[in-house]
Amino acid sequence: MINKIMTADEAVAGVKDGMTIMVGGFLGTGSPEILMDALVRKGVKHLTVIGNDGGLDVGQPAGEFAGKTARGIGKLLEHHMVDHIIASHLGVNPKLNEQFAEGTLRYTLVPQGTLAEKIRAAAYGLGGVLTPTGVGTPMETELDELGRKKKVVEIEGKKYLFELPLFADYAFIRPSVADKFGNYYCSKATKNFNYVMAGAAKHTIIAPEKIVEIGEIDPDYFGVAGVLVEAIAEGEKKWQI
User: Fold this and answer.
1) Which pTM value belongs to this model?
2) Both ends of the chain: CA-CA distance in Å?
3) How many Cβ atoms sit within 10 Å of the Cβ of residue 139?
4) What's the pLDDT at 240?
């Protein structure tokens, strides 16, 4: 069997300037922190990042859970590594608007359900998805996040937008538990985009909180099959919240 386990730095070694990456998580919850740290150390620039949001800045959220470091995609924004972010929510991390105002960052908002389904379409090899979201709005005629034209399709008298798949070079995912082949599951809210992104990129890299032997856990518990996973990075710490 191929050994998929490696360090975070080894796992991101193939990422190059200008690539498109997906990052799991929802406001930092379920984001693969050691992989974000490894990207910062590598110093890649001009990335297009696909995720639910811009992660968290230093000191967010407020109160006893305030982070001493940025979290998730927020680490990439902190080091000005992102040229374009494609997300469904951009209202929390102040770095987003600061860099947009400076002219160093472009962002594209995509409705959350549409974003998830466009990623799922890429993972499952579908030609696209039909959604009523955006029908009758400027979304009908606007180009999509990658500059592609949209179509309006009418089925049984109802109109839908035809949205094209969203694919990346790398998908970075944080499971709660994975075995050494890469079969994994995510607990509770950390499922978010960490399931749908698997297979929607040329390379799927996971950073599990816990790694177990193959067969140690009943395979019925796993939400994603290890055949989709190329590498497993060791060292992810337990989430603080």
Assistant:
1) 0.95
2) 36
3) 18
4) 58
Strand, coil or helix: 189: helix
Reading the block at residue 85, the tokens are 């972010």
In this model, does residue 56 exceed pLDDT 70?
yes
212 forms bridges with which residues in the sheet?
A: 179
Torsion angle, alpha carbons of 113, 117, 119, 123, to 10? 150
Does residue 172 contact residue 232 with C-beta atoms inside 8 Å?
A: no
Q: Does the pLDDT value for residue 33 go beyond 90?
A: yes
Handedness of CA 117, 19, 183, 240 (dihedral sign): negative
Contact 160, 132 (CB under 8 A): yes
Which residues are within 8 A (CB) of 170 and not within 5 positions of it... i.e. 6 or more apart?
Answer: 12, 14, 15, 19, 20, 21, 22, 201, 202, 203, 204, 205
C-alpha 206/C-alpha 101 separation (Å) is: 33
Residue 46, pLDDT > 90, answer: yes
User: What are the residues facing 5 on neighbouring strands?
Assistant: 232
Residue partners of 167: CB distance under 8 A and separation at least 6? 20, 122, 200, 201
Cis check for the bond before 175: say yes or no (omega within 30 of 0).
no
